[in-house]
Design brief:
mainly alpha
């Protein structure tokens, strides 16, 4: 279900994109069931693609967003394994 791919061209720092990714990871990981996590992931993917369609970021931004994506995926995997929908 979850395929997070972030392609940010190198350029200026994009702290708003990093904040969105990190906040979304916190939301997904705070969920107690798979439905909550799925809804949070869908909201994140929608907001990221709408708000940052041509995002540019530093290598540090890319690294932080990828780390947040990994956290989202890890939390999703745990929740979906516990109680399938």
């Amino acid at each position: 279900m979850l395929a997070l791919v972030f392609a940010m061209a190198m350029g200026c720092s994009n702290t708003a994109a990093v904040k969105l990714a990190e906040d979304s990871a916190n939301q997904v990981c705070a969920c107690k069931d798979a439905k909550c996590a799925r809804d949070a992931i869908q909201n994140y993917e929608k907001r990221f693609t709408e708000d940052f369609p041509k995002a540019k970021g530093t290598p540090g931004d890319v690294e932080k967003i990828q780390a947040a994506g990994k956290r989202i995926n890890d939390c999703w995997q745990k929740l979906s394994a516990q109680a399938p929908e």
